[in-house]
Amino acid sequence: MFAATRRTVIRSAASLGLTAPLVACAGGGAKPDPKSVALSGPTSAKVLLFNNALFTGAQDSLTSLLSQLDPQLKPDYILFPGQIGEFRTKMVAMYSGGDVPDAQWIHPSITSLSASKKLLKPLEDYARQDKTTPISEFYPGLLQYFRWQEQTYALPWYNPGYSIVYNKTLLDQRGVTPPDRLEKDGKWNWDAYLSTLRDLTRGSAGDPARTIGLHPISTNLDWICAWIWENGGDVFSKDAKKCVVNEAAAVEALQWYADLYLRYQVVNFGAAITPDFQNGFKSGRIGMKQANKEQTAPAEKDLAEVSFALGMAPIPKGKAGRANRVGTLGFGVANNAPNGDAGWRWVRFVSGPQAAAVFMKNLSTLPVRPRFAQLPEFPQSMNPWENKDYWLEAPTTARALAQPGSYNEIATLWNTTWADILAQKGTVKALVDDFARQANAMIAQEG
Prior knowledge:
It is a single chain. By secondary structure, the chain is of the alpha/beta class. Helix content is 39%, strand content 12%. The chain has 19 helices and 12 strands. The N and C termini lie far apart (47 Å). Residues 1-11 and 19-34 have low confidence and may be disordered.
């Protein structure tokens, strides 16, 4: 990946009139009311980071940029090297022991945990006093991932988008209508999706010419929820106090999705299927995969290294329309932070236009605010086969999964349930009923 220079980034943001507010706040001005947020002045911010290459690959450029935009704010980075599960556990222990940062990297799976345990501070008061960063400017679908009980606990800096990427060479060889053409004709729906996958699935195990429709997509609860939404169902009630995944629309979606694996066998999964496609999508023998923007970057060695032509289409529509899960990332301010105001200054910077230009120049993200699509780095980050309109549609159709405080335990239980579905240990309805019963028992214990 390549880094943006400070001069280039500031110039491109300035062309949209986006730099002045942050630069103005970095200097002097009237003394703030004692109860007001300190938006300027020399200080440091202890920033807890997760070992995420999307961020660490741009960290040096961001630090250099911050030194020009808010030269009195010095970030003190603390990098956690483990996995997200370890991060959740360590984070709670750190806070309990009084080792509290000023700002913190936030993954959607820790929003409810952090908010319910009062580890993070709602950001509305900061944004209300600091007019440079209106929360309302961000895509609502991205913000939902960081909201809990009607309050916002982080601002996004990362928007991966999600779209269907297809092997154009294979579709042309098979005479299969490409999904973007079906989309233009208003026909790209679940029926067309299944038909396309079946048309691309040919040959038997061991056949060197064998092809299959779909590279597997994560079936974790915070991924498979999108298919449930598209069918008009949900996983939890809006207040997250009840698991409703065993209601008719959700069960119908899960049955349909399980059929892709078991009945139609159009998904590359399991020991009996995987050996024919050792390199996954890069083998050239898989028709489609769901992908995000970062996978287009050369450093990812994923979509950038294929030896065949690519095409792109949005996620197919269900009977309830199009719905996306978008794995956004953000930064929040710790509750009881030693210097929460400095934490906010970090949050507003890293979710702002100049930082966005750096991330987009690294091909690692899409705009987190609609107006950031006007930055020149956005169209410049597109490969010839990419469709920026499809990428921009993803956050407008994004939804976040309502999460009870015990979500992480429930999500782990779901993985066992889905494995049981694929192992055909019971009907989809019976297994989902059992999952919902156990999930509701966990939610009831939250009090």
